[in-house]
Amino acid sequence: MIGKDIAKQIEKLLLNVCREYFHNNTPDLSFPEKIDLSLQVTREAKHGDLTSNIAMRLASYGKTSPAVIGEGVIAAFKEKIKGHL
């Protein structure tokens, strides 16, 4: 189980990754000033440790599908943490 401190650090990193991804992939649009990541511990371990609705929230701003945003954010997040785990 992930502790609250670790979850907060991941949330901060995820927000930064989302901001970078959004800026790089939708340069004509501004990243929303306030956005709730809703980073939560999953109920079932088979779904991973944490879950977020960030792709759904950013899809409406970026005018693209949540799946495309989710895949892009995941790839950017993995790249950002490469070598740190």
How are the secondary structure elements laid out?
Blueprint: H1 4-25, E1 40-41, E2 50-51, H2 54-62, H3 66-81
Antiparallel strand pairs: 1-2
Helix pairs in contact: 1-3, 2-3
Give the percentage of residues in beta strands.
under 5%
- Radius of gyration from CA coordinates: 13 Å
Sheet with the most strands, sense and barrel status: 2 strands, antiparallel
Give the overall shape, derived from the CA principal axes.
Answer: globular
Average the pLDDT over all residues and give the rounded result. Answer: 83
Category by helix and strand content: mainly alpha
Domain count, please report it. Answer: 1
The share of residues in helices is: 55-70%
DSSP, total strands: 2
Poorly predicted segments: none
User: How many helices in DSSP terms?
Assistant: 3
Distance between the termini: 16 Å
The topology string of helices and strands comes to: HEEHH
What topology, given as strand order, has the largest sheet?
A: 1-2
List keywords for this structure.
single chain; 85 residues; mainly alpha; two-stranded antiparallel sheet; 55% helix; globular
Tell me what the structure shows.
The longest helix is centred in the N-terminal third of the chain and has 22 residues. Helix 1 crosses helix 3 and helix 2 crosses helix 3. The protein has three helices and two strands. A two-stranded antiparallel ribbon has the order 1-2.
Compact overview of the structure:
By secondary structure, the protein is mostly helical.
